[in-house]
Structure formats: C-alpha cells, structure tokens
Design brief:
The protein has a 7-stranded mixed sheet, sandwiched between helices. The protein is built from 13 helices and 13 strands. Helix 5 runs parallel beside helix 6 and helix 8 runs antiparallel to helix 9. The mean pLDDT is 93. The chain is an alpha/beta fold and 356 residues long. It folds into 2 domains: 102 residues, Beta-Lactamase; 236 residues, P-loop containing nucleotide triphosphate hydrolases (Rossmann fold), CATH 3.40.50.300. Strand 4 and strand 5 form a beta hairpin.
Length: 356
C-alpha cells in the first residue's frame, strides 16, 4: 500500500498548531522540526526524513502549476490552507540537490494591538488619512502580525477602500466597515511592480504593501503617501534610524535628495520590534517607536539621521520609546530576564545602565 503523505503532513501540521509552533521545517536527514518560542525542536516521534519522504510531503503541498514553477525557478513562495483550520506561508527550496520546506503558521484570527501586547500609541497610526508608516525588524519578529492588527482596526472603524499587495497573502481579512481587496503576486497579479503601478488607479484609501523590496516599490509607496493615501509596509531593518538610511541609500546619489524630502514630508512613524522569550513561556514584543515630529523631519531633510536615536530617547512624553527602554521596562516587570534583554538589545551596556 502506498504511503499517504497528505495524511502524514496533516498530522505534523496539527501537532505543530497544538504545540503553539510558529514554523515547521522539512529537511532531508532531520526529523520534521518545529520552532516554538524562537527555539527549534525536532519531532523525535517522527522518522528522520529521507529524500523520498521529504519530496512526498512537499508534493502534498503543491499544485501541478506550483510543481512546474519549483522545477524552473528552484524555489517558490505560496500560501497553503489546510481544511479551513490552519493557514501557512510556505517557502520550498532546494539544498544540495534535495527539496526542503519552511512553513510559517498564520493564525486565522487577527489579533488586536492589545492582544499582541503592543504599545497603545500604535492606535494613533490607524487614524491618519494619508502618510507612510513602517513596521521593521529582523525576520520572524512579528512584523506581518502587527501590520494585520493595524489594517484590521481600520477595517472595523472606517468606511475605506483597503488594497493589499502581498507575496503571498498571509492573513485573510473579513470585511467589516471597509472594502478590502487582497492581491496575491502570482495568482492575482503578474508581478509586485505591476500591482504597485496600477494600485493608484483602483481608488484606494489605504494601501498595504507586504514588503519593501527595492527602490521602485519604495518610490511608488512614497508617491502614494504624497498623493493622499495611507500606506503601510514592512522592511528588514534593525531600527528607525537604520530604516531611513536604508531607504535613502537604496537610491542613486542623484535621487537621494528628492527621496529625503519625500520621506520627511510623508513619514508618520516607524515601529521596530523584537519578540523576546518570556520568563513564564511564550514571547512578548519589545518595541522602538519613532513618531515623525518636526525635529525628526528636519533631521531627515538635513541627512542627520544619526541624531534620531537621541530624539527618540528624549521624547517619551510624545509616545516615543527606544528599544532599550522597552526592554528595560520588560525586565523591571519580570516579563523577561536581563540575559534575554541583553540578547535582544542593540546596546547591552546602555541597557544595564538603565537598569542600575
């Protein structure tokens, strides 16, 4: 009797969900492995995966069209739903000639800012009619989840037209007061750039771009924010000041002045997050929050981004917070250990000073 890979895959997915895993990894020579609270744990009750087993499990995820794309492009990104119970963002790739897959679990329920333990000041960014807001941080630190919370808050409060451009679609929104169109690269549009170029002709109020990929997508996002739209996106950077430098430096020198002035005019704020392991289990976000006030706009215009950290540090009355102050507060509340705080800090000695 042939082995039922679909059934085995379903068992692994359900087990991962029950254990509260964020990711599943399928890789030749290893047990199926899950990531829980940031740590990788092999499922030792499952057999070590052979090339044939790995390929069988992965083929249970793929449509024939996706199989063809995988063969021609050597890797593929897509979303996968399991019986309307679980949803995953999947990346399948080759390593040393064998297939591997990483599956990120996406909850169906979109959690609120409160449920995510995020600072209440984030509610303010859902009230604007135009501007540019970014959620940044390393991979796997909750950027997409935060973005979904902000978009869903607008969905429940405003009669707006929201368009998302994602690769692939992660959270699926249930329309409430807003009209929501979610466009997936590959199935709803041929490319990220085509979707971005046509988005302004689709009469949006709010635009969510899954990820800032290159200068072209950044330029379109800034133009959209300038022309009366509220734009949300994410970027893989470590801090607010680094984000601004990264955006400006991604353009050729002769365009940087224009980008600097567009950014100074449209940027509303940046939140940078880390998901830190809690003492009692689970993870809790530590956030740096930069709100664009006149001082920060001037620094962006004048190319003095290195001074932004100082403004964030001294503007707590406006709702700004540095990553170290956020970590220090979590240590004081005994949510996280000092050791974990130092692991996630960009300046551990300053963190120790704050706590002494």
């Amino acid at each position: 009797m042939a082995f039922d890979y679909s059934q085995k895959l379903a068992e692994i997915m359900m087990l991962a969900a029950q254990q509260g895993a964020s990711d599943i990894h399928l890789s030749v020579g290893k047990h199926p492995t899950v990531r829980i609270d940031g740590n990788l744990l092999p499922l030792t009750n499952e057999p070590v995966l052979t090339p044939e087993m790995t390929a069988g499990l992965i083929s249970a995820l793929l449509t024939p069209e996706q199989q063809d794309r995988l063969i021609s492009e050597k890797e593929i990104d897509f979303a996968f739903s399991f019986e309307d119970k679980l949803r995953f963002r999947v990346n399948v790739y080759f390593q040393r000639g064998f297939l591997s897959a990483a599956l990120r679990l996406i909850p169906y329920h979109i959690r609120t800012i409160e449920e995510l333990n995020l600072p209440p000041i984030l509610h303010e960014f859902t009230k604007y009619n135009q501007g540019f807001f970014l959620v940044v941080g390393p991979a796997g630190q909750g950027k997409t989840t935060t973005l979904a919370a902000l978009i869903d808050e607008i969905n429940h409060k405003r009669m707006d037209h929201i368009i998302t451009i994602e690769d692939p679609i992660e959270y699926t929104f249930i329309q409430d007061r807003a009209l929501i169109d979610q466009r997936e690269v590959g199935s709803d549009t041929l490319s990220f750039h085509r979707a971005l170029k046509s988005v302004l002709r689709q009469d949006p109020d709010v635009i969510m771009i899954g990820e800032m990929r290159d200068p072209e997508s950044i330029a379109i996002a800034l133009t959209a924010a300038e022309t009366g739209h509220l734009v949300f996106s994410t970027l893989h950077t470590n801090s607010a000041s680094q984000t601004i430098d990264r955006i400006i430096d991604s353009f050729p020198a002769n365009q940087q002045g224009q980008i600097r002035s567009q950014l100074a005019a449209t940027l509303l704020g940046i939140v940078s997050e880390r998901l830190v392991p809690r003492i009692k289990g689970g993870r809790i976000p530590a956030c740096e929050i930069m709100i664009c006030n006149s001082a920060i706009r001037n620094l962006i215009r004048e190319g003095k981004t290195y001074q932004i950290d100082l403004i964030i540090d001294t503007s707590s009355q406006e709702g700004m917070i540095s990553l170290n102050r956020s970590l220090a507060e979590l240590v004081r509340r005994r949510e996280i250990s000092l050791e974990q705080g130092e692991n996630y800090s960009l300046n551990p000695s300053e963190l120790r000073q704050l706590l002494s």
